[in-house]
Design brief:
Elements: E1 16-19, E2 24-26, E3 32-36, H1 42-59, E4 65-69, H2 73-79, H3 85-94, E5 96-99, H4 113-121, E6 125-131, E7 147-153, E8 163-164, H5 169-181, E9 195-196, H6 202-218, E10 223-228, H7 234-251, E11 256-258, H8 259-266, E12 275-281, H9 282-291, E13 298-301, H10 303-316, E14 326-329, E15 332-335, H11 354-366, H12 370-385, E16 388-389, H13 391-394, E17 401-402, H14 405-419
Parallel strand pairs: 3-4, 3-5, 5-15, 7-13, 10-12, 10-13, 11-12, 16-17
Antiparallel strand pairs: 1-2, 6-7, 6-14, 8-9, 14-15
Helix pairs in contact: 1-11, 1-12, 1-14, 6-7, 9-10, 11-12, 12-14
The structure holds NADP nicotinamide-adenine-dinucleotide phosphate.
């Protein structure tokens, strides 16, 4: 396929899918990987991440042929639109890609480009591992206890974008329907009101929970926790939990056991060879991640809970400069840091690129490049342990050396050479 404005590198080959059923990939020695720098600090963190990922690939006997793609401000300059069709196509065709943050204006203008990307590509699981790197300052006493990974549903819930603005004809039509036809006549307050709809489907819930359970089984994790607010929102979040248990009970045989069965049949004793599926109410869970950190492992959550909880977990291991993520669909991975475009720091060569580097490590792991992924993680950890850090960590580390984004990347590259 040729593109209008995307330059395809001369070297490198595409990653292909061997088996659509199992999502198995055929990854060449030098894959073409699309990279979207993004807005704001994307211009700082993306080149730094690219440098480190290339170094780790080369140090493990491979290479990456990077292919720049565009969205947000870079796309407005090149295409005069926010999200060009060929950006979507390039990600779809190459199966694995990485992006920096994209700015979303609040209240006005276009809806989030990130949400649009996730919905168009149907990358239905937003995956955020939260583990502590030695030396990273944390607000909790034992940050090393945190080793969780959240699977956040990415395509529905209140993020589906079905909402109407106060004062419009549409919102009044919805109010009328809800009050007169559905019988909720004393529920919505009089006067101006905005109304949104929260869809949670069996299809989206089950495919997300499958991804979480598959991950737990493949990575020898002990449990998968379904996190919901089903005590209040019974038919949406409650259904999320019920459908999640259905997947656990009906599709995995002895490999998966529910917490109820654990107590009824095994007196609470955790089996060595099975993943336990349990559920927790979301507000309680926000306490549990602080007070019983070690008990939790893999989490599966609807979209909004996932957003809140993974940021809260991220704070415990050092904050946004460190927190990586990736969006997964069927045989599709779009890695991205958790943080946004922090416009006030854009272009200052100042912010922490670790989150995007570690997002690249998730991408490498998905490609089967586990050694390269480990090298990226170990090199970041070694650099931070040496107290060679960007401003965000420097302000919390006594006696540290404050580095610019590019200097920090050079220090991580040195450690890659040393550790390889
Ligand atoms: P943000 O861009 O994540 O920045 C919030 C604060 O987090 C920064 O001021 C900074 O804190 C810290 N921070 C973020 N990234 C950092 C890094 N790499 N290194 C060090 N510190 C970092 O959040 P926001 O200001 O709420 O959002 C800005 C824009 O990004 C919005 O348009 C939002 O919609 C968008 N956004 C995009 C994505 C995405 O593309 N996936 C995700 C979230 C938000 P200090 O100033 O305290 O040092």
């Amino acid at each position: 396929m040729s593109y209008d404005k995307i330059e395809v590198p001369d070297e490198g080959e595409r990653i292909r899918v061997v088996d659509e059923e199992t999502d198995e990939l055929d990854v060449p020695g030098t894959p073409i990987i699309p990279i979207l720098y993004g807005d704001g600090i994307g211009q700082d963190v993306a080149p730094a991440a690219k440098e480190i990922l290339t170094a780790a690939a080369r140090a493990t006997g491979r290479d990456v042929a990077w292919m720049r793609i565009y969205a947000g401000e870079s796309a407005r300059e090149k295409y005069d639109e926010n999200l060009p069709g060929e950006t979507i196509e390039a990600i779809r065709e190459h199966r694995v890609a990485i992006k920096g943050p994209l700015t979303t204006p609040v209240g006005v203008g276009y809806r989030s480009l990130n949400v649009a990307l996730r919905q168009t590509l149907d990358t239905y699981a937003n995956v955020r591992p939260t583990y502590h790197l030695e030396g990273v300052p944390s607000p909790v006493s034992n940050p090393e206890q945190m080793d969780m990974i959240s699977f956040r549903e990415n395509t529905e819930d209140v993020y589906a974008g079905i909402e109407w603005e106060a004062g419009t004809d549409e919102v009044e039509q919805v109010r009328e329907f809800v009050e007169d036809e559905m019988g909720f006549d004393e529920t919505i307050h009089d006067g101006a009101v905005g109304i949104g709809v929260k869809p949670i489907s069996e299809h989206a819930t089950k495919r997300l929970v499958r991804k979480a359970i598959d991950y737990a089984l493949e990575h020898d994790r002990d449990s998968v926790t379904l996190i919901h607010k089903g005590n209040i929102m019974k038919f949406t979040e409650g259904a999320f939990s019920e459908w999640g248990y259905e997947v656990a009970e009906e599709e995995y045989g002895d490999e998966v056991i529910t917490e109820n069965t654990l107590w009824e049949e095994r007196d609470g004793e955790q089996p060595d060879d099975a993943v336990v599926v349990n559920d927790r109410i979301a507000d309680n869970m926000l306490q549990q991640v602080l007070t019983r950190t070690e008990q939790y492992d893999v989490m599966a959550l609807p979209n909004l809970n996932g957003d809140y909880l993974s940021d809260a977990c991220g704070a415990q291991i050092g904050g946004l400069g460190i927190a990586p993520g990736a969006n997964f669909g069927d045989a599709l991975c779009l890695a991205e840091p958790v943080h946004g475009s922090a416009p006030k720091y854009a272009g200052q060569d100042k912010v922490n690129p670790t989150a995007m580097m570690l997002s690249g490590a998730i991408m490498f792991e998905y490609m089967g490049w586990t050694d390269a992924a480990e090298l990226v993680r170990d090199a970041c950890e070694a650099t931070i342990s040496d107290k060679r850090v960007t401003y965000d960590l420097h302000r919390q580390i006594e006696g540290g050396e404050k580095l610019a984004t590019s200097e920090y990347a050079a220090a991580v590259a040195e450690n890659i050479e040393e550790l390889a």
